[in-house]
Structure formats: structure tokens, C-alpha cells
Amino acid sequence: MGNSSRKIVAIMGVGTVSRELPIVAITPFAVAAERELGDAQLRANLGRATRTIRDKRARVVAEVADWEPMRDRAAAVKDEVLDNLSELLARFEAAAVAAGATVHHATDAAHANAIVTELVKEQRAESVVKIKSMATQEIGLNEALEAAGITPIETDLAELIVQLADDTPSHILVPAIHYNRSQIRDLFARRMPGFTATSDEPAVLAGAAREYLRRTFLAAKVAVCGANFAIAATGSLVIVESEGNGRMCLTLPETLIAVVGVEKLLPRFADLGDFLRLLPRSSTGERMNPYTSIFTGVTPGDGPQRLHIVLLDNGRTQVAQDPVGRAALRCIRCSACLNVCPVYERAGGHAYGSVYPGPIGAILSPQLTGQDAGFNKTLPYASTLCGACYDVCPVKINIPEILVHLRQTGSKPAAERAAMSTLSWVMRDRRRWRAALRAARSGAAPLRALTRRRGGTLRRAPWPLSAWTAHRDAPLPAAESFRDWWRRTHESS
Amino acid sequence: MRIALFVTCLNDALFPQAGIATVTVLERLGHTVAFPDAQSCCGQMHANTGYAAPARRLERLTGAAFAGHDVIVSPSGSCVAHLRAHTGLPAYELSELLIDVLGVTDVGATFPHRVTYHPTCHGLRALRLGDRPTTLLRAVKGLQLIDLPEPEQCCGFGGTFALKNAAVSGAMLADKCANAATTGAEYLAAADNSCLAHIGGGLARHPAAPKPIHYAEILATTGAHP
Ligand code: SF4
What we know:
The complex is a heterodimer.
Chain A: H1 4-12, H2 29-37, H3 40-62, H4 67-83, H5 85-98, E1 102-106, H6 109-122, E2 127-130, H7 134-139, H8 141-147, E3 151-154, H9 157-164, H10 181-191, H11 202-219, E4 222-225, E5 229-231, E6 236-241, H12 245-251, E7 255-261, E8 265-266, H13 272-283, E9 291-296, E10 306-312, H14 316-319, H15 336-340, H16 342-347, H17 358-369, H18 388-392, H19 399-409, H20 414-427, H21 430-451, E11 457-458, H22 466-469, E12 474-475, H23 482-491
Parallel strand pairs in A: 1-10, 2-3, 2-4, 4-7, 5-8, 7-10
Antiparallel strand pairs in A: 5-6, 6-9, 11-12
Helix pairs in contact in A: 1-11, 17-19
Chain B: E1 2-5, H1 9-13, H2 16-28, E2 32-34, H3 44-49, H4 52-65, E3 72-74, H5 77-86, E4 91-93, H6 94-101, E5 114-117, H7 121-126, H8 132-138, E6 144-146, H9 161-164, H10 166-182, E7 187-190, H11 193-203, E8 211-214, H12 215-220
Parallel strand pairs in B: 1-2, 1-3, 3-4, 5-6, 5-7, 7-8
Helix pairs in contact in B: 10-11
Bound molecules: iron/sulfur cluster (SF4).
Iron/sulfur cluster is lined by residues 282, 331-337, 360, 392-395, 397 of chain A.
């Protein structure tokens, strides 16, 4: 909990939120986003928080002279991993086993949950301490453990807040970005054993959480973690965190279970350098990460005496087969793309209906869990393709390109399909196109006359154009198309 | 130099002034403009909405229409970005053509007005136009360029995004319009009429907001009014 009070300030420094705890239902992105947009306070908080962090990121990235070549190298290393996935997994497993770890292979979420639950039961543990991990969220491990009568305890402060509230995170890095401190105090009072503080000062709340977590760490028999990186050559796992709670989980309990997505591999130990420079600057805007733990197998008499590594596939090898979509697997979960995304900033994380929100969620969720599941069908359209995400991504994932790819491979409404093919049919022939322009021009003539005084734009239009005029005036076809002007001025002579 | 104009389907139908202005500027500089009549749409809208097959057909049509032309200009950043990525045609956005190919920054325009410039996402991040358009605008006689706050923020257009995610698009537009209104400019210029149709449609509902204008129209103006 080294700098948890700083973190709680960061969580709460975003002002006050007057917001009911969200009930996440399966509704398409646009509906969910509109609901979130209605919360002016949430919007102000998210706007302020994402602006602060993206300015900070921009400042510290600008300090690094070789940032661009470093991004290229990191992307190339990740592509090397995807090209040689099975070979590198075998190498990782051999090295990890040689160092005393036990390696398991999980094909999907249910399989991974069953493995972990069984391992916890073997230790007769009633609870496990957890380090914030996207992989365990993705598979719904907490819910699976609870169903088996095991209590998972999140030890990252923001994750703990979200867990105590029976809520879901709304940001990869700042999961409780949607809470204010009086809500957190009330939550602690209701749900945290032994909590007595009446103040909602960040330092007091952080202190109370620290007390609670210290007791928990010392009593824990089993810890569950993810990994930011897994080194194939050495069998090492790398965990990057900023509160020190991870260090506690990695050293105190006798048994450590790591759930690691197969794409987390790096071939060589030397590859780690670039990633440890890219990740903190991209995610928290810090030059260096506060707590970086690198551990390999088991050391007799020191730290956990049983290390289980669950290598999680859950759709990843299939995504790796898609020549365009596979780049999404380079992701190191830094959340820089969320912080620059104008759509995420306004819609909030819950609108994405998945543990992976924002631009990365929009390309990852449909690929991992199927384009027709839940919100997934609408996610590739939850973007203007503005490209801000691609610019900041430390592993150069061309997110707009993958969004377009998913739009092209996904199913589409019949009416839209018909309209688009009619339009392209008209556009493919110069006579049809000229005739269409003239028809539009004469059709719009009365409207042009009516709207001339107000600048020639239309304020209200019937469906389906009403979706446009709900927010903005619509332009009208010109009195003379460009090609008619050209013919009149350049071809008649 | 002989320069072929790709006017774009949107400009052809709704905003011919941008095409006319492009022709006017280039002819004033002594160049010959060609308009291949077989052109219509580059396929961007179909591709980005998810319709690959019609997009590929329109890309092929555009490729055939401009075959044999060494220099192609278009007053649309997003269409140039699409052509470059999908056709291999030698297409330039107007400011790239003027500055990089023709070596001109002062095109001899006069426009005695306060202007703010929105860089548009494709201009900013796909084409990396940088300060090319504003370099051209700064050289216009009488023009006072006013910085737009948060210029790199997307306006919320995004093609069918404006319809499919109307609420988020509207919220982004409101922020862009509010930023534009604080400049006190008379005109908001940009390099893409698709974004300008959306921003202009929002500005039309703002009291005392700048009027939308394609920057090519400013470059074409030699008198007091566009
Ligand atoms: S997609 Fe790129 S920017 Fe977004 S979280 Fe992943 S690594 Fe970071």
C-alpha cells in the first residue's frame, strides 16, 4: 500500500459524483452511452480525469527521444510472439517447470476457473487475496470462486472499492473513476470489517484500507495474480503495480496462482526493457513504475512454495489467425487509448458492456467473445475513427483499421445494406450519378428557397434524417452540382 | 502543371464551392486542371460503414477514372487518405499539393476576416498535414487567424457514427461548437466538408458562432467576400 493515499487522491480528485451505482444490463452501446451521457457529473469527472492523465502522458512521452523506434520494436516483438505462439509457450513452460512452477493450460474461461478453484480447494483456503488482473476479470474468476464458497479479496484499492460495491470497473487503470470519497466512506462503513472512521479524507480512507488489507495479507494462504509479461526464455513472470499490494500477495501466501493470457509472452528477458519504459509513461504518465516484481519459479524457504501458472487461451489463438484483427493481441493494457478517446470520455466504461472498455475493448471484445454476443455487435461502430488511439498506443495497434475490419466482417441491418448497395450502384455509372445529382437538386429546390434566409440549412427533417437534425442542421443539395458547373464553364467553349 | 481534380461525391452534390475554389486557385497560379468525368466516390463511406465489396468497386472505378494522371488533387483530407491507402493513386490534399509539390505558400488571396481553423482528424493524424493549411491561411492578405481551443479533438462526425451514436456525436459537436464560439472568429475553416457539414449544422444553432467554410474557398477569394 506504499502510495495508496496518492492513488486515492487520484481516484477522488475528480470531484463529486451524484450517481446511483450502475446496473449493467445488456443493451447496445448507443443506448448505454446515452444513459451515461445524461449524468453531467460523471461526464465532468471523466472529462477532467482523462484530460489530466492524457496531458501528463503527452509530457512524459515527449521527453523520450527514441519513443517512435521503441514503439516499432515493441510491436515487432509482440508480432514475433504471435507468429511463434505455440513454440514460445512450450519454451516458457519448460523453463517455468524447471524453476519449480506447475503449468496448466486453460482453453476457455470455464476451464480456467475450474483449474483455479480446484487449486484453492486443495489448499483448504476459504479466501484468496488478489492482485488486480484483467485476465481474471475477463474469465469472471471472482464469481466462480464465490460460487464455490471461496471469498476473493481484491487488494488493489480501486478494485477493492468496486468489489465492495458489487459494481464493475469502468476504466482499466482507474476502475473506481466513477466514485467520490463520501460514497467510498459509506461503502467502507457498510462492507469493510472493522472500519470505524467517520472522516472521508483520502488519507484516512487509505489508512483504513491499509489496516484492513494488512490483516488480510497476513492471514492469506493463497494469492491469485495475473501477469503483465511472461518471459519465454526464463519462465519468469512480471507484475507491474503501483501500490505495493501486489508485492504483499506475491511474497506472503504459501501458494500463488497466476492466470496469464498466452499473448503476454515476450521471447527474451532483454525484450522487457522497452516494455518497462513504454508501459508506465503510457498508462499513468509516470517515468518509472513504482513496484515491478519479476519472479521465476519457487525458491525453497523464501516466498510462495507452490507456484501455479494457468496459461489462458480463451479465444486468443483464434484471434491470432486473423491477419488484421490479431494486432489487438499486442495490447499491454496501458489504457492510453481510453484516455484519449473522445467517445470513451463521454460514454464511460460501462457503456462497453465488457471488462475491456474504450477503443481496445471495441476491437478485443467482439474478437474474443464473438461479434454477435451482448454489446459486441455495436462496439465496432462506437468510434468516429478519429485515430487518437492509434497515435498513443505504445505497441502501435492500428485500432481504426481493426474497427473497420470488424465492421466489414460483421452482420449489418438489411435496410442499411440495401441503401448502401443502391448508392454504390448509382455512383458506379456517370450517367446515373449525374441524373441522381440533378434529381436531388430539383427535389431540394423548394427547401432551398425556404431556408435561404437562415443560411440554407435544414433544421428539421423526417426519419431517417431526423437522427441527423436532432443534433444539427442538415445541408441541402447545391443549386448546381460541381460537374454541371464544370461542364458549363470548362466544356462548352 | 496539369493537375487532375478529384472533387469527391459529397462536394459534387452538396458543396460544389470547394471544388470551384480549388480550380480557381490552381488556374490563378497558372496550372491546368482536368476533371475526369468518370469519377464519383472513392469508396470511403462504404468501406468505413462496413461494406467492403461496394467500396472495392468504387475504389477500382476511381483508379480507372484517374489512370494516367501524375498529380491528383482533392479538397478532402479523408478522401485523400482513403485513396492513398487503397488505390495507390498519386493523390494530394490541396495544401500538400500547393506547399510540397508546387512550392507555393502565398496564393494571392485576400480575405479580411477573423478565421479559426479546425484541423480535422484525417488531416491531423492520417495525412499529418501539420501546419500546411494554416501556413497558407497566414499568407492570405487581411486574414486574422485565431487559435481554436482543443483543436485536435474530434468534432464527432465520423460518417454514420453521427447517426448510429447520435447522442455521443451530439455531445462532441456541442464541445467543438462551444470552443469555436469562444474564438470570436467570423469563420471556422477546415479541409473537409464532411466534418464541416456536421460542425456547420451545429454552429447554425449557436448564436454568434463562426460560419463554416472550406479553406480552399478562402484561398480562392481575392475580394472582401467569398
Ligand atoms: S490498445 Fe494500445 S493504448 Fe490501448 S490499452 Fe492496449 S496497449 Fe494501451
